[in-house]
Amino acid sequence: MLGLAFEGCACRSAFHAGVAAALTEGGVRPAVTAGSSSGSLCAAGVAAGRGAELPVIWRSLAGRRIWSLRRLMWNRSIFDMSWLVRKALEASLQGVDLRAQPVEALAVATRARDLETVVYSSREEPDFIAPLLGSCFFPVLYGRTVRVRGELLVDGGLTDNLPVERLVERGCDEVIAVVTQPDGTALKRPGRRGWRPQARGARVHVVHPRRRLEIGSWDLDGGRIGRAMEEGWAAGRAFLGS
What's the gap between Cα 139 and its chain centre? Predict the structure, then answer.
């Protein structure tokens, strides 16, 4: 049983979009996907059957600014991330009932009141957009707070930024972990950098770039997005052996 996990890494997940497209077109069919923060968005896209389309969705963000005076009242902040992420999710999940999809998606968030990890399943949520937005919510950069069943959520990366263990709990014994460091390590949580993905009870395969990505965490430059996706595509094809 195969699981696919994406590391949370803000705008650098353009790399993930390239990997997802390569794996999807190469015939990789995970039973469960998982992610935190921006990684949860890619996990949901794959579960929705939109893995091959993720680069197109990412390119739609190219050249955008992460701040907006025009949407100041809607965002409740000068930063535009609440709007940008919601619109990207609506584009990728529009018309798709994730509960009916053959692939289950897991979105990891952090419960604000006690900083405990919360895992939301696409099998159980009638509207998966709210948990995904909660998984990405970062104070200041996101103005609109997110609550799911009354619980205030913040970024899932605060407690588990690469939730490979959640896939094992779902029965996966083979896991593909997508990370953005060229040495194959990941940020597991703040203060725990350089973590080498592993999970007891599963064989973990790591997909990573060949070189350091040019794109920054809050970088929507079109050229750098394109190159990050191309690097992701190359890494995905290399993993498949082609």
Answer: 18
Cβ atoms of 40 and 6 within 8 Å: the answer is: yes
Which segments of the chain does DSSP mark as H helices, in order? Answer: 14-25, 38-47, 54-59, 72-75, 81-93, 129-136, 164-169, 222-240
- Compute the distance between CA of residue 85 and CA of residue 130 in angstroms, rounded to an integer: 11
Phi, psi of 164 (to 5 degrees): -65, -35
Is pLDDT at 45 greater than 90 in this prediction?
yes
Q: Please state, in angstroms and rounded to a whole number, the distance separating the CA atoms of residues 137 and 153.
A: 7
Tokens of 118: 């919360």
With bands split at pLDDT 50, 70 and 90, how would you rate the model's confidence at 182?
very high
8-state DSSP, 137: -
Q: Which amino acid is at 61?
A: L
Q: How far apart are CA 239 and CA 241, in angstroms?
A: 5
What's the pLDDT tens digit per position in 110-124?
A: 999 999 999 999 999
Angle between helices 14-25 and 38-47 (to 10 degrees): 20
pLDDT digit string (tens) for 60-87?
Answer: 999 999 999 999 999 999 999 999 999 9
* pLDDT above 70 as % of the chain: 100
Distance CA 133, CA 120 (A): 12
pLDDT of residue 56: 93
CA dist 176 and 166 (Å) reads 13
CB 215 within 8 A of CB 228: yes
